[in-house]
Amino acid sequence: MDKKFKRTLVTSALPYANGPVHIGHLAGVYVPADIYVRWLRLKGEDVLFIGGSDEHGVPITLLAKKEGVNPQDIVDRYHGIIKKSFEEFGISFDIYSRTTSKTHHQVASDFFKTLYDKGEFIEQESDQLYDETAKQFLADRYVTGTCPHCGNKGAYGDQCEKCGKDLSALELIDPVSTISNSKPVLRKTKHWYLPLDRHQQWLEKWILNDHKEWKSNVYGQCKSWFDMGLKPRAVSRDLDWGISLPLPDTEGKVLYVWFDAPIGYISNTKELLPNDWEKWWKDSDTRLIHFIGKDNIVFHCIVFPAMLKAEGSFILPDNVPANEFLNLEGNKISTSRNWAVWLNEYLVDFPGKQDTLRYVLTANAPETKDNDFTWKDFQTRHNSELVAIYGNFVNRSVVLTNKYYNGVVPERGELTDYDKQILAEFSDTRKEMDNYLDNFRFRDALKEVMNLARIGNKYLAETEPWKLAKTDPERVKTIMNISIQICANLSIAFEPFLPFSTDKLRKQLNIGKFNWNEIGSIDLIKAGHQIGEAALLFEKIEDDAIQAQLDRLERIKKENELKNWKPNDIKETIAFDDFSKLDLRVGTVLDCQKVPKADKLLQFKIDDGMGGRTIVSGIAKWYKPEDLIGKQVCFIANLAPRMLKGIESQGMILSTVNSDGSLCIVTPQKQTRPGCTIE
After folding, report:
1. Model confidence at 114, in pLDDT bands (50, 70, 90)?
2. Which helix or strand (DSSP H or E) is residue 253 part of?
3. Which of 528, 505, 514, 380 is nearest to 453 (CA)?
């Protein structure tokens, strides 16, 4: 950045309070934001970190209706869970509030009224679906129907989850209200719109010309919106949950959640600093940074800036370092399918391992493209990097200092060329980390920090002070002094990334916090300083803990398959005479074996009561041949013979296809003589 700002205001996307937060939220928004804020604080800069729950919107009303409770009950429950999760993972907000607060309702209402009084909105009527039974207009999520793109009969009014297309409720074929299951009708309703098209010219220049330093994924998405042409966007909707429109004769209308949610950043700041909030939002010496996921790019780069500009007294964001999405074991994280790692459950299974998750999510951060979280990678990074490199170096340094010097840091003697080489590598790293962090490249910055631990680990391994203790005690003093200095440096470098293990390290070294700019110093801890006892920073994660997580995901996958299973469409109607042509019979399996070079096929010898026959069936994946011998099966006896892998198959064994795709052989309920017909 060219301009030097006096202060930095950091906001993070407001999570919906209709469920807990998961690792995708943490990786995409909250860990990067927390790293950035902790880094600025260590540098001694003036910074404010604002967060909160988004507690309005249709998903919350849908869940409340499903559970038979009030929306307030839902948001109270999940706001508490989310807030606690962030606290447990060290997300160091200065305030974490909510959009149901009195302060927010007042600030959002005042913001709308200011724009309204300035003539920044347009009013227009439009057709909207109305439920005559429930006597209310229907938000998009309250409507289901057939997707016009793929024919999915369960598409929602805002999106088809089968083909992924964005929809409007009016596009659905045969729409149905999810409230009453009745067919909605079209009815006129009036709403207020923010005419984004009026703002396109300055927005394009501001982003595409003035902010070319923004991340490529952010820049590219904004450009695609401009290329399509911005259109007016409704700021109100017909709903009974939200901030009432502050205008006369507008009962039943609330601020659209996309309009009121980002104002939450302002209201939360005002709640924290009621007498001093304006300098953070209206002073040009403040740098505003929004941390978000890619699904919020348009709102924070185009819509919210247009709102702020229209109001006239607010600063605009200097950067919006949005991340892409994190997948889980190769599949998109889905809250509705429970395909996620929930933060409130993670610490039950991995107590005390907040930093491990922070480390892995940063190392795999989806900074410019989607990335994948796997439990095996989680285990490998923890054991081979945090335990074997960082933890191993710190533990050996503290153990040996206690062993040789009763925990008193020894005097450092003359440095060898190797000592100077190691320290030179170490002192140059801060500049690299600063560059990465200033440009929101947290993954690269973490690599540099771990490289410091590697340098320390290498230094101890190659100098081998335990071998020199008797032959060259003066050399050992220098080695251990340098090792403890490196540990102290690591307590600074790892602080933004791994705050919990850093606290443990500082306790072992018996030190407080240093300033970020002191990284590279070899005089952080003076000779004669008493350090504490050694304790492991990290303990190994065993295979059974990882297998338990993989087993859980496998169970969830099967549950989803069962939940989403629907019978195949019935085939074309046939005449009874066509059906009567099938000769269905019962036979007994005399022999069964796998067909060579065919993984799916089994060869049956069937006693059909008429001298026997051979049938080849593609069920090898679900049955062992030896388990089928002696069992009775149902088969089609008059099917034309067919050659399969050089074997003539004289019929077809009947099987059912289960919801998970597996096959199950159809058998008679009682023992039957081979050759009996099925009527």
Report:
1. very high
2. strand 253-255
3. 505
Same-domain check for residues 319 and 393: no
CA angle 22, 24, 30 (to 5 degrees): 85
Integer Cα distance of 99 and 382 in angstroms: 37
Are 31 and 104 contained in the same domain? yes
Q: How far is CA 279 from CA 163, 191, 273, 314, 606, in A?
A: 46, 33, 10, 10, 86
Q: What is the pTM of this model?
A: 0.86
Range of the domain at 406: 364-518
Model confidence over 642-669: pLDDT tens digits? 999 999 999 999 999 887 778 999 999 9
The last residue of one of the domains, among 468, 483, 518, is: 518
Shared-domain flag, residues 499 and 399 = yes
Residue 644 parent element (H or E)? strand 642-644
Amino acid identity at 38: R
Residue 490 lies in a domain: yes
8 A C-beta contact, residue 602 and residue 641: no
CB contact burial 98-115 (16+ within 10 A = b; e otherwise): bbbbebbbebbbebbeeb
DSSP string, 257-275: HHHHHHHHHHHHHHHH-TT
**Confidence at residue 165, expressed as pLDDT on a 0 to 100 scale:** 77
- CA dist 665 and 210 (Å) reads 67
User: Residue 674 corresponds to which amino acid?
Assistant: P
- Alpha helix segments (H runs only) across 314-428: 343-349, 354-363, 375-381, 392-405, 417-427
Q: Which of 215, 213, 219 is nearest to 367 (CA)?
A: 215
- Is it the case that residue 72 has pLDDT exceeding 70? yes
- Structural contact between residues 14 and 32, judged by C-beta atoms closer than 8 angstroms: no
What sign does the dihedral 527-532-534-540 (CA atoms) show?
negative
373 and 480 together in one domain? yes
Residue 2: what pLDDT?
Answer: 62
pLDDT at residue 139, as a whole number: 83
- The answer to whether 498 and 356 have CB atoms below 8 angstroms apart is no
In sequence order, which residues have a C-beta less than 8 Å from that of residue 43 and are 6 or more positions away?
A: 515, 516, 517
In a domain, 180, yes or no: no
Whether residue 136 is predicted with pLDDT greater than 80 in this model: the reply is yes
What single letter denotes the amino acid at residue 138?
Answer: L
Residue 154, in any domain of the structure: no
Do 513 and 580 lie in a common domain?
no
Angle at 341 (CA atoms; ends 337, 345), nearest 5 degrees: 110
Q: What is the CATH number of the domain that holds 433?
A: 1.10.730.10
Q: What 8-state DSSP symbol labels residue 101? A: S
Q: Angle, nearest 10°, between helix axes 473-493 and 392-405?
A: 140
- Number of domains, the chain: 3
Residue 326, amino acid: L
